[in-house]
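Chain A, query sequence.
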Amino acid sequence: MRNIFTFFLILFSLFSSAQMDTEHWFAPMFSNYKSAANYQAVYLSTSETTPFPVKIYSGNNLLGTVSLSKGAPQIFEIPRQYIITEDVSEVSTIQQKGLHLVGDKKYFATLRFSVHNHAEIVTSKGKAALGQEFFIGMPRLNATVSSNYTANILAVENGTTVTLSGYLSGLIFTNDSTISSTKTVTLNSGESYIFDVDEGTNEALDGLIGAKITADKPISVSNGSFSGRMAETGVDIFMDQSVPVEKTGKEFIIMGGNGNFPKSEIESTLIIATKDNTDVYLNNETTKYANIPKAGGYIFIPSDKYQDLDGANNIYALYVKSTDNVYVYGILAGSRDQEMPSGGMNLIPALSCFLPSKIDELSEVNRLPLTYTGPQSSVRSEEYHNVKLNILAQKGASVNVNGSTSGLLGPFKVDGSADWEVFTLSGASGNQTIETTDDKAITAGIAGGSGPAGFGGYFAGFSSIPSISKIGDCARGQMLEVDDFYNEYKWEYSTDQINWTILPDTGYQINPGKNFGYYRVTVTKLSCLPAQTTKNFKYLKCPTYSNSEFTAGACNTITIEPIFTKNPTWKADPTKTAIIMKPSSGKAYVGADGKIYFEAENTTDEQVKFTYYLEQQGTEFPEYEEITVTVNIFQIKPKNTEITECIDYSGKGYFNLKKSFEPANVNSNYTGFEYYTDAAFSPQSRIPDSEISNYYSAPGKTVYVKISDIYSCDNRLNPGKIQLKTYELPQVKSIDVKGETSAIIEIEKGRKLYSIAVKKGKHTQNDLPPDFAYQQFNTDRANIEINGGRGFYTVFIKSADNCLPVISYFTVIAVNNVLTPNGDGYNDSVEVPELHNKINPVFQIYDRYGKKVFEGNTLNNFTWTGKSGGYNLPTGTYWYYMTWQDYDGAENDSLQGWILLKNY
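Chain A, predicted structure.
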C-alpha cells in the first residue's frame, strides 16, 4: 500500500478475530497485483502445555506437520501456489487450493502474507467460520483498473452446492463473462472457488458489497480486495475471513485505528444487514442513525461519529446497536501521516458476556516480513513493527497482559454501553496473553503503524454464540463439542427434533458413537445468565468405504455405474455423486447421465486411484459410500534397440528391423508392430512389411515402431526406436614410404585386427583384392613390403568388422639415370610425377660444377628434358636432388643421384 507520489510508505494490515480451535480453514485468494517479493505463512500458537501435532493440508496434499505447545509457537511458510494465485484462468473455476489445518487440541491460526509494499493478515475463526449463509463485506473503493473485489470459497464436505446472489445486476466476473442474477458451483471437500470482480470490466465495483453466499453444507468464506484503491494513489489489501449469519450479533464496539480523528478520510465502519428492515443506533443516541430496508443492504459510518476516549493517545471508539443481526467491518488506517494509502479492514465480533475470560496466547503480534520502497526509492525489509493492544472487557473487569498491568491505559467508558469498557497497551510485542482475574468476558485486538507497516483487529469473539461442532473423522472417531469455558452443560438427543432425551454427559464434549440424529446442548456461564441453548446439530452417518479395481489400456475410458456396495437397491442422489479424490493422472468425472467415467488420456502411470462419493436419495439420514477405484493401466513400454551393419560405398546398408526389435519386445498383450520413418507414424512414412527384414538405409537414421495392444491402444506418444548404425571404419592417419621396398601405414579408429592389402596402380571399389591378399596386423602401425618398385599404389584396409575396405593411395619415387632426348620415345625425359602426391616436394638438377640447371614444379610436371632456360645442355653427367614429406608433419624423405645426359 504505497503512495507512489511520496517516499514514505505506511502500510496497514488487519488481524480479524482469531479463534482457538482444533481445525482452521483459509480460502485461497486472487491477486491482480504483480510482485516479485512475496511472503506467506501460517502463525500458530496454543495454550496447551503438552506438545501436539498440527497438520497443514491443501486439498489432499499434506504440506507439512509442526509440533505446537505453549511458549513454542510455530511459523510454517506456505508455497504461494496453494493460497494465492495471479492466474486469471484459476478464477471462476474449481481448484484445489486453500489450507486446512488439523490439530488434536485447540490453537490459534493466522495467515500472514505480503507482497512488495503491501501486507495483510487473515485470522481463522476455526469452526466458527463454517456455515451456510454469508453476506459479503469490503470497503467502497476508488475505481481504477487495479481495483478488485473478491469472495473466496473453500468447501469442507463433498457435494457442496454454493450459490452467490444479491449482487448488482449486470456485474461481470473475472474469467466468467456470462451475465446472470446468480452464480452456482458444486464443490467437494478441499475444493475451492474464487468469485472476482475487476474494475477493468466493471464500472460499479461496490456491486458485490452485501451479496449473499449460501451453501447446502458448511463452507469457509473470505472476502475483500487484494488490490483495492480508496485514494487517488496507493493500492491496499483488504481481506478477512467471514463468519456465517448466525455468528453475527446486534451490539458492537469498534476501536479506531491510526487515522486522523475526528475527521479521518479512511476510518469508517461498514454495517451489512442480514434481515430486512434493520434499524441501526450509534453511541448513546436514542434516535436511530439509519434503517436498512433489505437484507444485504449496507451503510458506511464516517469517523466523525466515533467517540473521543483519549484524544491525546488517539483512542477513539464507536458503539453500534441494531435491531437484527448485522455484519460490522472496521475500515482503518495504519498511519496518521499517510492514512489514505495505508488502509485495512477487519470483521468485528459482537459483544457478548459469553466471550472468554482469557486469551492465551497470541503469537508474534508485531511480526510480518515485508519488502517495501522507502525514501529515495530505496528498497527496505521490515520484519517487526510497533503495535498497540486494544482490549474490550466487561465493566469492572480486572485485566492484565502477560500477568502485568504496566503500561495499560484505561478503563475508558464507551457511551451507549453500560456493560463494556476499553483498555489500551502501547508497544505490545512477541507473545501475548490477556486475561481477567474475575471471570469477566474480554476480547482483544491490535492496532498500530510503525512506519512501513501496521496491524489491527480482534482476537476471540466469534465462538461467543454457543454452537456444536464435530471434531475428528470416521476413521479416528468423532466427537461433538462446544467451547470449554462454560460452567454447566446439558446435552440432549432426538431423532425427530420433537421428542428429546437428556443425555448423562455433563462436559463440553460427548461421543455420539453410532447414534445418528439431532443433538443440542444448553450451556450456562454463571457470570452471563441466562443459559443458552444451541441450534440443533444434525449428526449424520459415517460413510461406507469400499474398493473396486479395473484394468485398462492407456487410451481407454472406463464407465462405472454408481451402485452402493452395501445395498445395490439404494438409489444414489445424482446431484450429490462426486469425485472426491482425483486421480494423479487421467481424468475422472461424473457424466451428465450420473455415471462415473475415467479417461486414461494416455497417462504413463501404471496405476492410478481415485475416489467417488455416493449419497442415498430420499431419506433424512442417508447412507453414504466412498468408493476408491484402482485402475491398473497396461503400458506399452518399448525396449529400444539398435542395429549395426556394414555399409556399401554408396553409404547404405541392409538392416533387419524385425529381427532386431520384436524378440526384444515380447509381450502377450502386444498384437502387432509397424515400422515408420517418422515419430508421428504418418501413413506415408510406413515401411512396407516386405522390407522390414532387409531395410536398405543409411546409418544414423532412426526407425520408429508402433506397437498395438489388446486394448486397442498403441504407443504413439512413446514410439519404439531402432537406431541404425554402422561400424566405425578405420582411417589412414599417414603413409610413410621408405624407399622403394616398404611403407609404414599408421591407422586410427576401427577395431583391431586390421587387414591390409596393397595393389600397384590406382584401383577402385570395383577392383577389390581377394581375401587371401590381405595381411593382418594387431597394431595401428603396420610396416608393409613393396615389391613393384616405382609407381602408384592402392592400399585397402579393413577393421575386425570385415566391412568393405577403406581405400587410400601412396606413391614410390625413383629416377631413370639415362636421358637421351632425341624424340625416339625412349628416355626422352626424366619424369617424377609422383611428387604431385607429396608434401613440400623439391626436384633440382645440377651440373658437375654445382650449378642448378633445372627446378621441377607442378607447372613443368616435375619433368626434365635436358634443357636449361630453353637451351639444350651439353652431354655429360648431371646430379639430381629431391626431397618431400609423405604426410604433414612427417620427416623429410630425400633422394639424390646422377643422370647421364646424351644430347644429339
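The CA atoms of residues 245 and 367 lie 32 Å apart. Confidence is low (pLDDT under 50) at residues 1-17.
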